[in-house]
Amino acid sequence: MRGTNSMSKTQNILIVGGGVAGLAAAIGLHNKGLKVEVVEKNADWSVYHVGIIVQANFIRALEELGLGEAAVAAGFPYKGARFMTMAGDLIAELPGDAQVDGLPSDLGLTRPALHKVLTDKVRELGIPVRLGVTFERFTDTGDGVDVTFTDGTSGRFDLLIGCDGNYSQVRAALWPDARPQFTGQGVWRYNVPRPADLEWSDLYIGKPGGKAGYCPLTETEMYIFAVFEEPGNPRFAPETLAAEMRQRLEGFGGRLGEAAQAITDPALVVYRPLEACIMPDPWYQGRVVLIGDAAHSATPHLGQGAAMAVEDAIVLADELAAKDVDTALRAFMDRRFERAKLVGTSSIQLGEWEMHPETAGDPVALTRRIREKLAEPV
Ligand SMILES: Cc1cc2nc3c(=O)[nH]c(=O)nc-3n(C[C@H](O)[C@H](O)[C@H](O)COP(=O)(O)OP(=O)(O)OC[C@H]3O[C@@H](n4cnc5c(N)ncnc54)[C@H](O)[C@@H]3O)c2cc1C
């Protein structure tokens, strides 16, 4: 029987968005015995081939979904993060702190590899996913949400979870003034061969405006990233991207300087301006809740976006399985808000320090402090 008042538990849930947060929520809720379905706007359900860096709290969260080993098998475990000078001399090592017995801490993954781990599980569990479909409109009636879909169908749900990412249409429908803001920096990415002895992700700091580095992704690949100030939020002509990225890497030595020579094909450069949106508490209104980037998109400085999305999903599933909707959503916020906000504001802070070195604090100390904080249970 479907819940009909605010004191009942949620039974029938719509997830809008089949990315990291949406798929993790679908798996977590299904595992708790709740009925879920997913709509995903992208008909191909494809993700572009870039790298994603995750840390011990991500592996711990995936382990809760029964996917820790699958994620590790799909990625490349490495030892942790090292900070380097521009010339490539070691400043500090932040070794990973594994939180699941038998599994590593830090992991490089390609985005398609992570997507496959999650979609394989969703298919195995038989969770319904409609591709190329989203909501046209929804109405919260107090005890449920009536949804009309773009494929002409409609449905009634106890809860709608907005997992539709940084440019969330669910957020736009309920919080029209909340929009991602350009932080002043953009991120450049390029995959190159991995030197066989590379076992760390190295961050080279000290160049005004940003930083750069690399991270192993697979046995054979690593990716180079460069986060730099981009005054005026420019758009770049596609054929110029390799030269633009190489220019930002000028002045770096060590392994980064060598690896940068391989950035030659403009079609393989992925450039994104950094746009962040950290929603205030609460991330819900009535029977609609936001999780993942829809609720708190940060910059990639701490490599925590995917982990925060999966942590949101498991905490929400936990609470919804145990409590009535209103109590569960409040309890969800109490467990998630400060933690996600800390990650978001600290990521943005690191970027601010890069753009304004004259007022900068210590990025190594801040990164270490956040890593320690995130090792605490969710
Ligand atoms: C360049 C870049 C590099 C990053 N690097 C890292 C990293 O190294 N480590 C890390 O942890 N995080 C990283 N992140 C952040 C990470 O990708 C996100 O935090 C994470 O994907 C959030 O998951 P999500 O499900 O909330 O959003 P997404 O993964 O963006 O998923 C949103 C999904 O919703 C779908 N959708 C959108 N609108 C609708 C709609 N109206 N209806 C239905 N479906 C819809 C989309 O097609 C997509 O499938 C990076 C992000 C960027 C942009």
TrEMBL record:
The lineage of its organism: Bacteria, Pseudomonadati, Pseudomonadota, Alphaproteobacteria, Sphingomonadales. Gene3D superfamilies: FAD/NAD(P)-binding domain (3.50.50.60). One of its GO terms (molecular function) is FAD binding. SUPFAM superfamilies: FAD/NAD(P)-binding domain. This is FAD-dependent oxidoreductase. PANTHER family: MONOOXYGENASE (PTHR13789), PUTATIVE (AFU_ORTHOLOGUE AFUA_6G14510)-RELATED (PTHR13789:SF309). It comes from the Bacteria. The keyword Oxidoreductase applies. Residues 12-342 form the FAD-binding domain. NCBIfam families: PRK06847.1. Keywords: Monooxygenase, Oxidoreductase. InterPro entries: FAD-bd, FAD-dep_Monooxygenase_BioMet, FAD/NAD-bd_sf.
